[in-house]
Amino acid sequence: MHSEDSFIVEGKLALPYQYFAGRTGSKFLVTLRDQKKIMGVRCNKCEKVFIPPRSTCEKCFSNISENWVELKPTGTVTGFTVVRYEEPHQPIKPPYILALIKLDGADTPFPHIVKGVPISKMTTGLRVKAVFAKKTTSTIMDIDHFRPDQKPKVQIGYTYEELEIGMSASFTKTISETDVYLFAGISGDFNPMHLDEEFAKKTPFKTRIAHGALPQSLIAPVLGMKLPGLGTVALEITTRFKAPTYFGDTITATGEVIEKIEKKKWIKMSLTLTNQRGEIIGDGTALVMPPNRDLIKEEDV
Ligand SMILES: [Zn+2]
What we know:
Radius of gyration: 33 Å
CATH architecture of the largest domain: Roll
Number of helices: 6
CATH topology of the largest domain: Thiol Ester Dehydrase, Chain A
Bound molecules: zinc ion
Number of strands: 13
Largest sheet: 5 strands, antiparallel
CATH class of the largest domain: Alpha Beta
Number of domains: 2
């Protein structure tokens, strides 16, 4: 038969279908959807954890369909590709990074999308964390994507729960003439006993001394940067001045936790200012509100 004898009718078939994810796959997707938990299955014989879960161990063929283990939402990228072609079934518009991610606690990697890292900077070994979708689709896309899981650059200080009576921290600084002049400018206190040596000779101290608030201010780096540390709010600081600070003196400010105020979750600390001769030039107390992890997200700091 010659081709011109063929009679061709063009048409389209609608093909609705349902797909059963299987017992194991269903449990995986339902747990992901309802509890935002990523589950794997473990073969106790081979000591391997599989994800996506499967009912049979691919090594020893044991039935492992009931050995569920919860996996962490964090993992390491073991391989990746950049999808650049466009297809209607794709979950997002290309280009995007499709990576193999070995979740912590799993022995097999599974594929998913990585966002939050430029394509040119993408690398294997990258630590990533699952970002769950806001709207469920009852599919693997209930994990919307993975993004880099970097350690926060700055970590908040000790929380109320972490602080214990007796914990202490110090900060040391040598007070120079420049510090005193800068402090005069900052505070507006140009009292000649801090700035004019000839005038200061006639005072009981016989030479210039630093403003009292200058060594006192060394308490701030202790509370705000060391103990409790970043995120601390100072509520009250009292200081008694006991001896002058001369130019060139090295002052150490020390704070020590002396009381935990459970009702308010506040911390009371003793403060001591000591010079290089071991003399206490000032002491007092501080009442502080230590950082709270529920209020400060470390990645925002
Ligand atoms: Zn096995």
